[in-house]
Amino acid sequence: MKEFKNKTAVITGAANGFGFEVAKECARREMKVVMADIDGEDLKKSSQVVKDLGAEVLAVEMDTSVFEEMEDLAKKALDAFGSVDLLFNNAGVVTSGSIWEMPLKDWEWTMGVNVWGMMYGLRVFVPIMLKQKTPCHIVNVSSVAGLLTTPGMPAYHTTKFAVVGMTEAANYQLQAMNANIKMSLYCPGFVQTDLHNCDKRRPERFAIDDDPYYQSASYKTGLAKAKHVITTGIPINSVAQSVFTGIEEEQFYILTHPQYNPVIGLRVKSMLEGKNPSAELFRR
Ligand SMILES: NC(=O)c1ccc[n+]([C@@H]2O[C@H](COP(=O)([O-])OP(=O)(O)OC[C@H]3O[C@@H](n4cnc5c(N)ncnc54)[C@H](O)[C@@H]3O)[C@@H](O)[C@H]2O)c1
Q1: Distance between CA atoms of 52 and 46, rounded to whole angstroms?
Q2: What is the pLDDT of residue 136?
Q3: HSE (CB half, 13 Å, CA atoms) of 272?
Q4: Beta-carbon contacts of residue 152 (< 8 Å; ≥ 6 apart)
Q5: Are strands 32-37 and 8-12 parallel, antiparallel or unpaired?
Q6: Confidence of residue 205 (pLDDT cuts 50, 70, 90)
Q7: How far, in Å, is the centroid of ligand 1 from the Cα of 192?
Q8: Name one Pfam family in it (predicted).
Q9: In contact, 226 and 63? CB cutoff 8 Å
Q10: Tell me: the pLDDT tens digits for 242-257?
Q11: Mean pLDDT of the residues in the chain
Q12: What pLDDT score was predicted for residue 282?
C-alpha cells in the first residue's frame, strides 16, 4: 500500500501507546481514522488529539476480545467511511507470573485480547478487504517476545508466539490467493508505552478480585518487572515511522530492536543443532 490519502485505517488499542502513535501518523497522511479502544476516557482524549491534526475520526469504545464487538466495529467503520484499507491489529495486554500460580482468569484475559482479539480482527476485516479488491494492508502486532522467550511472562510469550504463527499462516494463504491484502508482523522489543498499566483496563469479567494471588510476591514482582522493562524501553517516537516504512515497502517482518537479532538467531541455531535451551541465551 503506497497511497494513504483519503483511505481508512482501523486501529485497535488506539487510545495509548503504539495505536495512538499510528493514529496520529494516519492523520498526518490525511487518512480517515477509526480509533477503537476499551478505555473510553483515554480514547476521548486521544481521538481529540487526532482530530486536532485535521483527520476525520470515529472513536469506538469496544473490547477486542468479544467477537460481536469486533463485528460491530467493522460495521461502524464501513457506515462512517465506506471502506477499510489499513488494519493496525494492535490491542494487547501483558501478564507475568508462573503458569502454575497465575489465576486461570489472567490466562483467559491475556489469550482473549492478544490471541482471540487479533484473530477476530483478521476474521472480520479480511473478508471486507477482499471484497473491496483495492490495495489493503494489515499489521498484526506481536513482539520480540513472540520470537524468543524469557522466564518471567509465559502467558505473554504464548500469546505473542501465537500471533507469529497466525500471521505467517494467514499471509501464506493470502499470497496463494494473490490477494489484494499485504500483511506485516510487527515485533518490537521494549518501548515506552502504558502497557505496564494494563490491569486497569481489564474487562469486568477478568477483573482483579480477592484471589490471594494478587497480594502475592509473584504478582507484585511481575508488575514491578513489567514496569521496569517498559519504562526503560526505547522512546515511542520511532514507532509510526517503522510501521509505515513496513507498510510502504511491503515488509513482512518488522523488527525494531537489532540488539535482539543475535539472540533470535542463537535460539534457532540451538534448535537446529539439537542443543537444549538455556536461560543464558537471553542474558547475552
Ligand atoms: N510496549 C512494548 O514494549 C511492546 C513491545 C512489543 C509489543 N508490544 C505490543 O504492542 C501492542 C500495544 O501495546 P502498547 O505497548 O502500545 O500498550 P498500551 O497499554 O500503551 O496501549 C494498548 C492499548 O490497548 C487497549 N486495550 C487493552 N485491552 C483492550 C481490549 N480488550 N480491547 C480494546 N482495547 C484494548 C488499552 O486500553 C490501550 O489503550 C500490544 O499488543 C503489546 O503486546 C508492546
Answers
A1: 10
A2: 98
A3: 6
A4: 96, 222, 225
A5: parallel
A6: very high
A7: 11
A8: adh_short
A9: no
A10: 999 999 999 999 999 9
A11: 96
A12: 62
Say what the pLDDT of residue 152 is: 86
Nearest-angstrom CA–CA distance, 227 and 233 = 10
C-alpha cell at 153: 511472562
Please check whether residue 186 is in contact with residue 251, taking contact to mean a CB–CB distance below 8 angstroms: no
Q: What is the arithmetic mean of pLDDT over 83-102?
A: 96
**Residue 150 in this model has a pLDDT that exceeds 70:** yes
Q: Which three cell numbers stand for residue 149?
A: 522467550
- C-alpha 169/C-alpha 205 separation (Å) is 31
pLDDT for res 278 = 78
Which amino acid is present at 41?
E
**Predicted local distance difference test score (pLDDT) of residue 284:** 54
Q: What is the set of domains in the chain, with CATH numbers?
A: 8-259 (3.40.50.720)
Residue 219 bears catalytic tag: no
Q: What angle do CA 121, 126, 132 make, to 5 degrees?
A: 135
Ligand 1 site residues, Cβ closer than 6 angstroms? 12-13, 15-19, 37-39, 42, 63-65, 90-93, 113, 117, 141, 143, 188, 190-191, 193-195, 198, 201, 230, 233
Q: Give the closest residue (by CA) to ligand 1 atom 36.
A: 13
| CA–CA dist 137, 145 (Å, integer) | 23
Say how far apart CA 148 and CA 261 lie, in whole Å: 10
